[in-house]
C-alpha cells in the first residue's frame, strides 16, 4: 500500500471517528437536556408539596383549635356538670385533637424547613430550666403509664447558646419515640460534655429495642417502625426526620444505638455555642 493510500485510509477513519464523536456529543447534550427537564420537574413537585403541606397545616389548625377549646369548656363544666363517663369521652376527644395538632405542627415545620423559611432564634439558657419544662410537659402522660421518665440533673453543665425551642422539640420527639417502645421500665434523659465545645443529649430507654436493619432509616421522612406498642403514642412519622434537620440547623447531628430486647439510646450532639454562620444561614 502506497503512502497516498495509507493517508487516505487514515483520513476516512478520522472522518468516521469525528462523525461518531459528533453523534455521541449530540446524545450527551440530549441527555443533559432531559436531566435538566426532570430536575426542574422534581423542583416544581417539591415546591408544590411544600406549599400544599404549609397550606393544609394552616387550614387544619383552626378547626383543631376550636375542638380543643370546646373540650376545655366541657371539662371545666361551664355549661353544666358532666357524668364520669362523659368526662372520659371528652378527655378522649381532647387527646385525639392534641395528637392531630402535633402532627399538623410537624407537617408545618417540614414545609418551613424544605422552603428554607425556618427561623433559628439562639439565646443563653440553663439546662435545668429546659429539663424542668420537659418534665412538666410529660408528667400527665407518664402518670398514665407503667414506665418512669427520669431527668438526670445536669450538674456542672455550662449555659448553652442555641435555640432552646428547637432543642426542646428534638428531645420531646426523642422522649415520645421512646414511649412507643417502652411499656414499662424507664426512660432516662441526660446531658454530658462531648469534648470542650459540644454537649451530648441522650434519651435512653429499657424498651423492646429496634432491629438493626431498620435503624438507618429512622431519621427519614414518614418513617415509622411497626410495633404492637405503637398505638399508645401515634405520630406523623416526621418527628425523627425533623430532629435530624433541626440538629443540622443547630450545627449538630443525631444518632441512635439500639439492641432488640434491651433498649435504645437516641442522642443529639450540639455545639455549646451556636456558630454565627449557622445562625445566619438558617434564618
Automatic annotation (TrEMBL):
It comes from Luteibacter flocculans. Pfam families: HATPase_c, HisKA. PROSITE patterns: HIS_KIN (PS50109). The keyword Nucleotide-binding does not apply. It comes from the Bacteria. CDD domains: HATPase_EvgS-ArcB-TorS-like (cd16922), HisKA (cd00082). The keyword Zinc does not apply. Residues 7-45 form a coiled coil. Residues 55-274 form the Histidine kinase domain. Keywords: Coiled coil, Kinase, Phosphoprotein, Transferase, Two-component regulatory system. Transmembrane segments: none annotated. Its EC number is 2.7.13.3. This is histidine kinase. InterPro entries: HATPase_C_sf, HATPase_dom, His_kinase_dom, HisK_dim/P_dom, HisK_dim/P_sf, Sensor_HK_Regulatory, Sig_transdc_His_kin-like_C. GO terms for molecular function: kinase activity. It catalyses: ATP + protein L-histidine = ADP + protein N-phospho-L-histidine.
